[in-house]
Amino acid sequence: MAEELLKDDATKISGHLTWSLLAVAFLASFGSSMLYGFNLAVVNSPAEYIKAFYNETLTERHHWTPDEHFLTILYSLTVSVFAIGGMTGALLVGRLVTKYGRKGTLVRATMLVFIGGSLMGFSRWFRNPFMIIAGRFITGVHSGISLSVVPMYLGEIAPKNLRGFLGLVPSIHICLGVFIAQVLGLSELLGK
To answer: Which residues form a coiled coil (predicted)?
Structure first.
């Protein structure tokens, strides 16, 4: 009797990888995990250019030339606020998933990327260094939400025998994002 139940369970466990399942796994990871890896590493190469932008804008707006120590603190805040945003986003996941579901949370969190990216992208036009810091915080919130929700979502939609494989897809995209940020951060490409 027990052997028959085990055989029945074994047939229910097996599933195959379909193109739609693979596409969902790669798109969900690409839009979240790769962005996390990219944003984690992207600010390292252009550090001197970011500090110079902060120096220019603070001098123009406030008629005050900050010293190197203050610029280092401001740059350190720019780098570390991403992690603070990530922690905030991770703490919000429980409520968001309960209210919107896993897929709904992922779709709604995508808006944060566009808001954060717009703040950082238009900071040079508005000559406001604090838009970069706010944009990194909002992008960090998105990363904290996504890094928690994407594995939950992929585990929910995958057959049992493919959960391990699909659980690795976000990790691969994190590494890919760090790699892309390092390559694009070369001074010969976009490091300026």
So the answer is: none
